[in-house]
Every structure is written in C-alpha cells, then in structure tokens.
Amino acid sequence: MSANSQAVSASAVRAAEDVRVAVTRLRRRMKETYDSQQITASQSSVLARLNRDGPASVGDLAAAERVRHQSMAASVKALEERGLVVRTPDPADGRRQLVSLSEQGEQFVLVRRRVSGEWLTRALQDLCTEEERRTVIAAMALLDRLARS
Amino acid sequence: MSANSQAVSASAVRAAEDVRVAVTRLRRRMKETYDSQQITASQSSVLARLNRDGPASVGDLAAAERVRHQSMAASVKALEERGLVVRTPDPADGRRQLVSLSEQGEQFVLVRRRVSGEWLTRALQDLCTEEERRTVIAAMALLDRLARS
DNA sequence: CGTATGTCAGCTGTACTGACATGT
DNA sequence: CACATGTCAGTACAGCTGACATAC
C-alpha cells in the first residue's frame, strides 16, 4: 500500500472491472426472470423487505433501499395496483402511510421462495458448490459495505 | 441434496438475495461515478472491451455484451460523438463497420486505469484487504459463469 | 431469394430532480 | 415558521421490440 492517493493495486483494478461487467450482465439476466413473472426487480426487492422486516412507510423503504422517496413511491404504487401490498394511514401521523404485504403479497413471497422460481437461486443451486456459494455471500457482504461507504 | 428439482439449499436462497441487493446498490453507486466523468457504464464497458480485444463491429460488440445490436448501436453512437471511438467501413463487407478506439479513446482508458478515477477501484483499494479483493474476483468469475449459462 | 448488418422510432423500467401540498 | 412525508411532472439512461434499408 502507498501513501499516494493515486496508487492502486492490480487486484483492485481487476476486481473493479470484473464487478462492473458482472453487475451489468446479472442485472440484465435477472430482469428477464422478473419479466417472465410479471414483476420487476425493484418491486421484488420491496416485497422481500416487507416480508423480512414488516410494514414500513414509503420513506423508510426508500431509505433502506437507498433511493429517493419519489422513486420508491413509484414501486409501491405498482405493487399496490397489483394488490400485493396495502397502504394504511398512520393514525399517529397524518403524513405517513404504512405499507404492508397484503394476503396476496404474503402468498406471492412464499410461493416464489418455496418453488424457487427465481433464475438466480436455481443457478446458484445447480451450478455451484456449497463452498462457491459461501464465496459469493462473502463477496456480496464486502461489496455492500463498499456501496454504503 | 435432493433429486427433486424444486429443492434448494439455504445458501442458494441467501446468496441469490444478497446478489440481487448488492447488484442494485452497486449499479446506482457506479452510475454516480460515471456521471461525474461524463461517460456511462455501458460506454465504459465498450471502451474496456475494445481496448482488450481490439476493433469489432457493432454486432460483434452486441453479441459479446449480450445485448441487442440496436442497444449497442446507441452506446457506440454516443462514444463516436465524444470522439472516443471511430468507425471505418469494412472494405470486404459493405454492411459492416469496424469500431475501434481513437487516439483519444486509448488515452481515456489509460488515464482512467492509471489514476483509478473510478469510485469502485478506489473503494476496493482503500476499504478492502488483498484477500478480500481475491474473494471478490473469485465470486465475480462465478457469477459471470452463471449469467452466461 | 433469404440472411446479416445497421438505422430509426417508440416503449418500458428505474432512477433522478424540482415543485408542490399537506401535516407535525 | 421549518421540517417531514408524500405526490406530480419532467428528464435521463439502458435495455427492449418492430419496421425498414442495404449489402452479401
């Protein structure tokens, strides 16, 4: 390592390039999957979060996913129109609306998880060893740390 | 595990979820960086490929990046307007046009690599250990294999 | 002729910003 | 009042499809 802020190791350059390529390709590939399930990646993300952490406001969801509240509102709106989530006014704060999974939304999450309709899950299961999956999980934790920095 | 094609290990489910979240976040974060350099992620991808593999037609580039040729044409057009690539008609085939890095494009790639203007390279350098970077590289190779499958 | 290459036009998904209404 | 929450409108980017021209 060097004190020079310009100095970069070969592994950093290589890793960055690999990440960029993989991210672009994975995103497109995942999009195909979601398309075929009549749901988008962002919407799926919101469903998973609501299922894991329980009801939240649009602002909370936006903060958690690190997007603007206007962007999150669009995703939530789409999910609401599909009947997968419901919004209830917060009695304690007239500005807030709590977003929660509807009965149908709960079902959707459960079914998707059980049958693993998701392409990526299937691929990780069928084309990787247990050790390789652990490597992926470790790398994602690292990258998430970087993205949050 | 099981012969049932529905059966999925916990690590596969977990890894898939982690990948999805990380991909979404990283993509946004990378986009910010590219914005500040007046170049987009897709364009950067094309430059890197031309630099690595030499001149190619729009169709070749599209196939390599796994996008439609119409999509790739848009990226190439933008790069051409910035003077980073040049197009020369293929003398042997009147339909084809070879895309190659211009002098300015070569410079651009070199400078970016040397000074590591890219946010991700910087982060991988400053916030990770060498071993962690090797983990990331290994995981990206795995994921790229999946995306191509 | 059919196929390959490339262009143009229009659509979608996902994010962004700015302006605004409303409630605390 | 400032601040938080949410909506609406407009923009950008990167993919897509369909229709078309041209060259092999």
3D structure, described in words:
The structure is a homodimer of 149-residue chains. Chain A is mainly α. Chain A is 68% helix and 8% strand. Chain A has a three-stranded antiparallel beta sheet with strand order 1-3-2. In chain A, α3 crosses α4. The first copy, chain A, is globular and about 55 Å long. Chain B binds a DNA duplex (24 and 24 nucleotides) through α1 and α4.
Topology:
The structure is a homodimer of 149-residue chains.
Chain A: H1 10-36, H2 41-53, E1 56-57, H3 58-65, H4 69-81, E2 85-89, E3 97-101, H5 103-115, H6 119-127, H7 130-148
Antiparallel strand pairs in A: 1-3, 2-3
Chain B binds a DNA duplex (24 and 24 nucleotides) through helix 1 and helix 4.
Strand order in the sheet with the most strands of chain A: 1-3-2
Give the termini separation of chain A. 20 Å
Q: How would you describe the oligomerization state of the chains in this entry?
A: homodimer
Q: How many strands of chain A?
A: 3
Count up the helices of chain A: 7
Instruction: Identify low-pLDDT runs of chain A.
Output: none
Give the chain pair forming the largest contact, with residue counts: A-B, 64 and 64 residues
Shape of chain A: globular
Class derived from helix and strand content of chain A: mainly alpha
Largest β sheet strand count, sense and barrel closure of chain A? 3 strands, antiparallel
Q: Percent helix among the residues of chain A?
A: 55-70%
| Strand fraction of chain A | 5-15%
- The mean pLDDT of chain A is 86
Rg over CA atoms of chain A: 19 Å
Q: SSE order of chain A in H/E notation?
A: HHEHHEEHHH
